[in-house]
Amino acid sequence: MTDWLDELNWNDDGLMPAIAQDFQSGEVLMVAWMNREALRLSSEQGRAVYWSRSRRKLWFKGEESGHRQRLREIRVDCDADVLLLQVEQIGGIACHTGRRRCFFRVLKDGKWQTDEDIIKNPDEIYR
Amino acid sequence: MTDWLDELNWNDDGLMPAIAQDFQSGEVLMVAWMNREALRLSSEQGRAVYWSRSRRKLWFKGEESGHRQRLREIRVDCDADVLLLQVEQIGGIACHTGRRRCFFRVLKDGKWQTDEDIIKNPDEIYR
Question: Is the predicted ipTM greater than 0.90, yes or no?
């Protein structure tokens, strides 16, 4: 029934990184991890469900913040060990810091420099 | 001198995934791994240098194939454990299968379906 899950190369922990990319702007928003259950649920529900390595449980993205990710497409790479999701980011904020995306630091003059503003105070997101 | 390398959260193997994104089209081309040396060299030389986990050595992307990646930008995410590279893909082929990008399979009707053509025969790339 779910043969397509067996065709993937899960790592020793049964996980795989998943890149979430904004389906319109092409911006890479974040990277999180999925296990088989997370990917199966994502596919079935049409929304991003990850595996939280720190909390060791399924992470229904946006459950607390409302910042869900609607799934437009799921891709896998040649080695079948990285997923690429095209998502519609509800609320326009993917990062827990309140920014549009997690990649808000750029290497410049030998330093990591933040070049993206906080759209919403995290305290307001996670009440 | 290289403090910015110390600010990153390398995994237990001293590695970190790096996403290569086409700086013009925004297309996610591939994901590979870097260690400190690979990232330092990438930054210094302005080209993508990865760490090959299978060959256990530095992988100067394009050394054999000519398909180098000129670096336009290096970003890191909020957890400082994933890199995002904006690259100019020389030759237009990032994947070792001879395709433009590694993410050439999409989940459709419960199957992984290839929707991207081989531009160049791999035998011609790796002579």
Answer: yes
| Residue A35 tokens, joined | 């296990």
> In a 3-state reduction of DSSP, which class is residue A114?
strand
Q: Which of B41, B33, B40 is closest to B3 using CA atoms?
A: B40
Rg (CA), chain A: 15
CATH of the domain spanning A3-92, picked from 3.10.20.810, 1.10.3810.10, 3.40.50.300, 3.40.1280.10: 3.10.20.810
C-alpha torsion B67→B83→B50→A7, nearest 10: -80
Helix (H), strand (E) at residue A117: none
- Which chain B residue has the Cα nearest residue A97? B78
Q: Distance, in angstroms, between A71 CA and closest chain B CA?
A: 12
pLDDT digit string, tens, across residues A68-96:
999 999 999 999 999 999 999 999 999 99
Longest dimension (CA), chain B: 52
Asked if the C-beta of B6 comes within 8 angstroms of chain A's C-beta atoms, the answer is no
* CA dist., res. B47 & res. A109, Å (int): 17
Helical (H) or strand (E) element with B15: none
Query: What tens digit of pLDDT does each residue of B56-107 get?
Result: 999 999 998 899 999 999 999 999 999 999 999 999 999 999 999 999 999 9
Instruction: Compute the C-alpha angle B34/B39/B45, nearest 5°.
Output: 130
User: Residues 61..80 of B with a Cβ closer than 8 Å to A: which?
Assistant: 73-79
In angstroms, the CA A93 to CA B4 distance is 26
Mutating which of B6, B87, B99, B103 best tests the A interface, going by the most A Cβ atoms within 10 A?
A: B103
